[in-house]
């Protein structure tokens, strides 16, 4: 994420966001499946970690967690969790090859402009170990727009997302749909995909 307005909103409303999401993020069935798909003691990346609730759950399960976020306020909150190494970084800061057994990109890459999305996915595929697990969550729809509080979103259809994932080298294996209320109060449909590198 590199949109300054979106980052500023997360900085300003980090505590409110944590209050809305922490409880669900620690019990999310998708997170349970992601953890189970990673090897014991494996190294994982939480991309766009927010307040760190999911990263904390991964650490509790024995995974070595690298948590990153473009919001300094979110990084500060995530770093308070035992076992979580949190740092300030954007999507473009993820580099390296075959570093991670798993990458958790749960509702983070939806803030990247569509033109940057293929580059980000390719970089994450390189950073993932062969056969590693990748989870991505996005809001369903078309186009790019700002929400009621000014955050930039890029929306995807399921077919579009599958095409992008396969083009980057991922093999989608599990797809789930749902809907949820965002920080702006809007209920939106979403898609969550587990894939392998």
TrEMBL record:
This is Class I SAM-dependent methyltransferase. Keywords: Methyltransferase, Transferase. It comes from Antarcticimicrobium luteum. The keyword Cell division does not apply. It holds the Pfam family Methyltransf_23. InterPro entries: SAM-dependent_MTases_sf. It comes from the Bacteria. GO terms for biological process: methylation. One of its GO terms (molecular function) is methyltransferase activity.
